């Protein structure tokens, strides 16, 4: 059985090695990387190739959509039999069919099928100003007229929309033998049928790109070869006229069934699902009275929500009258009618959340670590912190210097992290400074902790991510890199600004086995999979609690089998501590919104309050209660998710997968117990070794028969089998016996039962 799977190209290696080969036994996985790969498959299938086992064909959706540029094949020339338009000698030009040479006919009123047909004028197909008769004349004289009647070097752009004709529909009355053939009454004329569009040709300068085969178009021609088409991240194909949407539509046609996987089926608007439905299940839409002409607004008026934006521009015109200009614009608002879900989605969707699967996650542990500053650092820090605090308070209160406080957090947070750098803060006329302590060659307390912790994690065979907040010109990433490298730790800074390339960078770092990655937590806030590095260390935090929460989950995902650890090293009696308490309070509020925490419980996590800003630094000291409050909060967040210690995780997971597989069997109407029993007792005869020798002998027999006759065609055949004969002569009779396929009794290992294929991305 053959299965086609499309996914973002970047995830294909992961699909192959981590999902398919790991979970489905005895399969073949091929990745289509180019149009030629696709064509090779098409050729094989047309020659009668059928997969022997379960065969997955993977294709990147971004690759599948690429094709040659489309070029209009019509010829721009003078119309025959049309007299001169005027005395100046200008002629009537029109687009002509490249096949029959007749003018291409289009409706006079575009879009009206019943209107009169006229020869296609310039702007039916061309989207640039018309070439003048003069330009054409010059080109003709210089011999620079292209085969399509346009001057060489012209920059042409073609119109592209679905209403433009695709074939020449010129009809010819039947003549000669054709006129007397049978059935001509029903089909009296011959239609030209020439294609009007073709791939652009690079060598003629029609395209800057070399021509390329559109993979999805090739796959479409495999009609029904694939039993199933799996489209990962299906929401990416939702657009009506994107290349991806088109590639998706073609690949749907290549398979008998389609399975779409997505984590975000809609973006909240009803139109985001329209094209996916139209391309996969047009029948249900047609039955509901929706067809290909149904526009977005009509769709949204039935299944979504529309809003009218009325713009009024008031303007005085004259003294007495006052006129308002009104413009009304209709656009779609977020909202999906329950009818849409009920009618088109519910009966063919499976909604899955982690607890539904009954699958556990490996243990996640959060460790707040409270450290004291070194003696000199602590003194200077306290002095700087308190002075600056007073100054900011004064500046923002009395004189109202705007943004006075905005400098406070970065300055204090940075001085606690980099005491080797002098800190200067200017407020109005005054400057507040903290001295540089040492030249950076000595590590301060938190840096020593960081190096020790990283080394200890590495010694356990674990890998780490270190998050910073103040990167860029603050150089926090570079400092961490430097102190780790000094201790002989291999590490890499992730600072790829391009979100799409970032995943690629991470994959490269994983391939190069970097044990430590350093980056700004903002960079990995969403979507990235960093499972390779199961320990996360917050060298710095952020006031944005959602950033902290999301970045802390980058390693803890389905598929992770190493225990996940998150460390929050915090300096006591510093702004870091206040920031930590702020995050704890905000996290509590977020959990309350999510319904994981009661309002009554909230107070115990909100140690930070407005008043604490004014409080003395001495109170910013974490006792055991703060650490306890933090871990309690973490537990509340994870409530409902089953966590298993790393040591037992693999066993428990495989047992759960088994249970899930049994549930699946039940849903398929199979009794799992009976099924297992049958599979364990029934030995399966498996042939080892190809039956090539036997085939050769058969070929030999056929050859002898063929040689008996000597017609022109068989002579060619016999030439072909000469080589075969030579090959056979190398084998002795004894060898032939040895090479005979052996039938071996082999007990099948019942691996199929606990298999699951799912995308949790
Ligand atoms: Zn034609």
Bulk shape: globular
Q: Identify the CATH homologous superfamily of the largest domain.
A: P-loop containing nucleotide triphosphate hydrolases
Structural class: alpha/beta
Number of strand segments: 27
Please give the CATH class of the largest domain: Alpha Beta
CATH topology label of the largest domain:
Rossmann fold
Spans with pLDDT under 50 lasting ≥5 residues?
Answer: 315-322, 609-614, 684-761
Radius of gyration, taken over Cα atoms and rounded to an integer in Å: 36 Å
- The percentage helix is 25-40%
Strand content: 15-25%
CATH architecture group name of the largest domain: 3-Layer(aba) Sandwich
Q: What small molecules does the structure contain?
A: zinc ion
Mean pLDDT: 78
Largest sheet, in brief, is: 6 strands, parallel
Q: How many domains make up the 3D coordinates?
A: 6
Strands side by side in the biggest sheet? 17-24-23-20-22-21
Count of helical regions? 28
End-to-end separation in angstroms reads 26 Å
């Amino acid at each position: 059985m053959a299965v086609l799977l499309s996914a973002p190209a970047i995830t294909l290696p992961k699909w192959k090695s981590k999902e398919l080969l790991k979970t489905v036994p005895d399969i073949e996985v091929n990745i289509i990387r180019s149009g030629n790969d696709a064509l090779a498959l098409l050729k094989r299938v047309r020659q009668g190739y059928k997969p022997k086992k379960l065969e997955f064909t993977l294709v990147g959706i971004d690759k599948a959509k690429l094709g040659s540029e489309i070029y209009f094949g019509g010829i721009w020339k003078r119309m025959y039999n049309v007299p001169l338009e005027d005395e100046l000698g200008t002629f009537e030009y029109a687009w002509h069919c490249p096949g029959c040479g007749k003018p291409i006919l289009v409706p006079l009123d575009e879009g009206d099928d019943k209107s009169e047909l006229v020869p296609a004028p310039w702007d039916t197909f061309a989207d640039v100003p018309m070439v003048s008769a003069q330009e054409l004349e010059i080109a003709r004289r210089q011999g620079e007229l292209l085969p399509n009647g346009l001057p060489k070097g012209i920059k042409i752009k073609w119109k592209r929309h679905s209403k433009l004709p695709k074939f020449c529909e010129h009809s010819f009355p039947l003549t000669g033998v054709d006129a007397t053939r049978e059935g001509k009454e029903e089909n009296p004329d011959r239609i030209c049928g020439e294609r009007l569009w073709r791939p652009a040709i690079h060598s003629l300068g029609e395209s800057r790109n070399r021509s390329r085969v559109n993979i999805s178009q090739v796959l479409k021609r495999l009609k029904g070869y694939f039993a199933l088409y799996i489209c990962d991240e299906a929401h990416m194909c939702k657009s009506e006229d994107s290349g991806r949407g088109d590639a998706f539509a073609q690949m749907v046609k290549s398979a008998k069934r389609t399975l779409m996987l997505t984590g975000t089926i809609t973006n909240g608007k009803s139109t985001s699902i329209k094209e996916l439905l139209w391309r996969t299940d047009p029948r249900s839409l047609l039955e509901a009275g929706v067809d290909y002409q149904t526009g977005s607004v009509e769709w949204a008026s039935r299944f979504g929500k529309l809003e009218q934006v009325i713009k009024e521009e008031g303007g005085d015109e004259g003294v007495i009258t006052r006129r308002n200009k009104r413009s009304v614009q209709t656009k779609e608002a977020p909202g999906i009618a329950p009818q849409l879900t009920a009618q088109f989605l519910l009966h063919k969707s499976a909604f899955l959340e982690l607890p539904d699967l009954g699958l556990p996650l490996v243990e996640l542990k959060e460790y707040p670590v409270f450290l004291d500053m070194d003696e000199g650092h602590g003194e200077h820090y306290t002095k700087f912190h308190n002075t600056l605090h007073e100054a900011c308070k004064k500046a923002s209160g009395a004189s109202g210097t705007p943004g006075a406080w905005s400098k406070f957090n970065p300055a204090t947070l940075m001085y606690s992290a980099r005491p080797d750098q002098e800190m200067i803060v200017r407020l109005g006329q005054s400057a507040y400074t903290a001295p540089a302590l040492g030249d950076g060659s000595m590590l301060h307390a938190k840096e020593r902790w960081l190096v020790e912790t990283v080394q200890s994690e590495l010694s356990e065979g674990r890998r780490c991510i270190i998050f910073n907040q103040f990167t860029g010109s603050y150089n926090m990433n570079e400092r961490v890199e430097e102190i780790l490298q000094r201790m002989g730790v291999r590490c890499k800074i992730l600072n790829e600004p391009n979100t799409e390339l970032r995943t690629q960078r991470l994959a490269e770092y994983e391939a190069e086995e970097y044990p430590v990655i350093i980056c700004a937590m903002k960079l990995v806030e969403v979507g990235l999979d960093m499972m390779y590095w199961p320990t996360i260390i917050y060298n710095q935090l952020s006031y944005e609690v959602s950033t902290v929460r999301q970045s802390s989950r980058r390693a803890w995902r389905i598929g992770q089998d190493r225990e996940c650890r998150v460390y929050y090293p915090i300096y006591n009696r510093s702004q870091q501590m206040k920031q930590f308490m702020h995050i704890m309070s905000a996290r509590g509020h977020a959990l309350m919104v999510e319904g994981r925490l009661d309002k009554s419980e909230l107070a115990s996590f909100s140690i930070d309050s407005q008043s604490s800003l004014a409080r003395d630094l001495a109170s910013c000291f974490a006792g055991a209660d703060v650490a306890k409050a933090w871990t309690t909060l973490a537990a509340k967040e994870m409530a409902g998710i089953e966590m298993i210690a790393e040591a037992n995780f693999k066993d428990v997971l495989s047992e759960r997968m088994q249970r899930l597989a049994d549930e699946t069997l039940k849903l398929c109407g199979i009794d799992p117990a009976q099924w297992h029993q049958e599979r364990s007792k029934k030995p399966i005869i498996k042939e080892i070794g190809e039956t090539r020798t036997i085939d050769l002998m058969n070929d030999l027999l056929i050859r002898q028969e063929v040689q008996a006759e000597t017609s022109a065609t068989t002579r060619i055949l016999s030439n072909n089998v000469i080589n075969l004969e030579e090959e056979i002569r190398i084998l002795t009779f004894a060898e032939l016996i040895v090479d005979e396929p052996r039938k071996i009794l082999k007990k099948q290992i019942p691996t199929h039962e606990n298999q699951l294929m799912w995308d949790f991305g």
